[in-house]
Request: fold
Amino acid sequence: MPVIIDNQLKEQIPYDPAVFPISFFHDELETLWQWSGPLHWHPGFEIATAETGILDYQVGEKHITLNPGDSIFVNGNILHGIRQISGDTADPMPNIVFSGSLVAPEGSQIYKKYITPLQQRDELPF
Reply:
């Protein structure tokens, strides 16, 4: 599935956090030009894993190399992008994007105590 972004670079993810607060993607790099995803952001958290190739995950201005088996957590509202830098085939790169409401209902004490502070930490982009 291509990464669809608006003029603010916000990714348009086809899920409704109020109904089902998680989206799973697999084999997404295969559909992207040069196995590279554009810089984008979204309000949800993201966890991505390199399965077979070596990936360059850009988070803000930092580049993180993911080797096969490595995973990364990207905080919500953080600009990020992906590029495969080695491998003969596109890495399946399973990843999930999810709302903090997956952990606890918004407005609950758990959400206020653990999720909100995490979402508001600019110094914790990944």
Observations:
- Residues 22-119 form a domain with the Jelly Rolls fold (CATH 2.60.120.10).
- The chain has one domain: 22-119.
- The chain has one helix and eight strands.
